[in-house]
């Protein structure tokens, strides 16, 4: 089975990955009877539940809420009220825990550095950078870090997905910022709302919730689930993240699925999809950490100047659009 059809990544929040098996099955498609809920954080309480009614009258109605594995967002199947975390469908997303899942199925952390950009995936015709935000913990030698934005390059195009800085978090207010080739992508704030690119066939953005959650697809190239989430007051107390009334540390939880990576792909996550990739991390450690940050540093969110960059080696607009059509 082609590992490039297997979902991967994250996104995280500080930035890392979970365990899985060497070969995973393709991510299942979201069924037609799904609903996405994004519990609010008003007053520190998660206040959103979903009422499921059986339209055929065979089952009693029920109330569904998100599992503690994925408190910020989950998928509910009606009328059973069975809930799933987004990473149950996109195996790269780390549920409630900031880490990457590599293409080889192993977890790893990559801490990066706040206010810096890093090459996550770099291939001949696809390049993805992540911008990190963070907080300094005086008791540690590194920053707490989270992914605030993605800069995606393909052919001559630039796609931006980011979380706006947010003081007091309100899940009913959209804090997601999208732009394509420098122009804002305006998707109505309602579940299922859709935007299609006129310039690139097959490039679409669909709201998976009325606010703060989208699915971004480029046919034949990638499928991305991106959700804006805050650091909760409870998590901040437990981990000493330092959330303040001025900044909820809103960031992205992300899941990637890739369809056409080459065997020369590199980057923090990308290298794990190579057939010759050898995992030198301590997979038995509770927190395996990928080092070598200087090799992945980029000068800005869209730059392809990291030391391991592959972008442009065979890129052409015809290649991307041909796969998308």
Automatic annotation (TrEMBL):
Stretch forming the signal peptide: 1-23
Gene: LOC127759805
Record organism: Oryza glaberrima
Name of the protein this chain belongs to: Root cap protein 1
Keywords, ordered alphabetically: Signal
Signal is among the record's keywords: yes
């Amino acid at each position: 089975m082609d590992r490039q059809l297997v979902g991967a990544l994250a996104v995280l929040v500080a930035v890392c990955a979970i365990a899985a098996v060497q070969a995973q099955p393709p991510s299942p498609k979201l069924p037609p009877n799904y609903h996405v809920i994004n519990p609010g954080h008003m007053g520190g309480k998660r206040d959103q539940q979903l009422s499921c009614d059986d339209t055929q009258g065979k089952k009693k109605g029920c109330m569904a809420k998100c599992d503690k594995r994925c408190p910020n967002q989950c998928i509910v199947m009606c009328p059973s009220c069975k809930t799933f975390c987004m990473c149950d469908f996109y195996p790269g997303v780390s549920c409630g825990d900031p880490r990457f899942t590599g293409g080889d199925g192993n977890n790893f952390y990559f801490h990066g550095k706040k206010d810096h950009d890093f090459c996550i995936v770099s291939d001949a015709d696809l390049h993805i950078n992540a911008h990190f935000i963070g907080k300094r913990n005086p008791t540690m030698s590194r920053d707490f870090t989270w992914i605030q934005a993605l800069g995606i390059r393909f052919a001559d195009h630039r796609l931006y997905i980011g979380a706006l800085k947010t003081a007091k978090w309100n899940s009913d207010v959209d804090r997601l910022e999208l732009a394509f080739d420098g122009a804002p992508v305006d998707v109505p704030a309602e579940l299922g709302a859709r935007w299609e690119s006129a310039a690139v066939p097959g490039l679409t953005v669909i709201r998976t919730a009325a606010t703060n959650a989208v699915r971004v697809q480029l046919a034949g190239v990638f499928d991305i689930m991106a959700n804006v989430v805050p650091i909760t007051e409870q998590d901040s107390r437990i981990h000493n993240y330092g959330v303040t009334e001025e900044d909820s540390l809103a960031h992205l939880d992300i899941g990637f699925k890739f369809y056409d990576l080459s065997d020369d792909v590199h980057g923090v996550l990308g290298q794990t999809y190579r057939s010759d990739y050898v995992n030198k991390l301590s997979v038995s450690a509770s927190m395996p950490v990928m080092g070598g940050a200087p090799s992945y540093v980029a000068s800005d969110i869209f730059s392809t100047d990291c030391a391991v960059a592959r972008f442009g080696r065979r890129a052409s607009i015809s290649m991307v659009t041909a796969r998308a059509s």
